[in-house]
Design a protein that fits this description.
Blueprint (H helix, E strand, L loop, with lengths): L4 H6 L7 E4 L3 E5 L7 E7 L14 H17 L6 E4 L15 E5 L9
Antiparallel strand pairs: 1-2, 2-3, 3-5, 4-5
Length: 113
């Protein structure tokens, strides 16, 4: 199986604007932002999609949410932000490598989609 774009970014094979990185994940700016702040929190471990995660992925999944909160605080997004995880083509999943979208700095509407 070929590498996803996220694996290539993690391996530094292609450039990206990285906001944060630790041993478990990388946070990067989306190249097609849907809000003034649009970050992607990507685990370094390849998990195809959230519905394919296993019980051993629990710590990684929790870490992604904690990192989202930490980065939001660092970027002064206290007014509000939205986290989104897409699963499959009907949810507009474009890369088969789990990632959390963090969107902020614009008014979000409800219902989404």
């Amino acid at each position: 199986m070929s590498k996803t774009i996220f694996q290539k970014i993690i391996d530094r094979e292609i450039p990206a604007k990285i906001e944060y990185e630790d041993e478990h994940c990388v946070v990067l700016h989306d190249i097609q932002p849907q809000a003034p702040v649009h970050l992607l929190i990507v685990p370094k471990k390849v998990i195809t999609r959230v519905g394919d995660a296993a019980s051993e992925d629990q710590a990684t999944l929790g870490h992604l949410l904690l990192v989202a909160g930490m980065v939001a605080k660092k970027m002064n997004l206290a007014q509000g932000f939205r986290l989104v995880i897409n699963h499959g083509p009907h949810a507009c999943e474009s890369v088969p490598h789990l990632h959390v979208h963090l969107l902020a700095k614009r008014q979000m509407s409800w219902p989404p989609g």
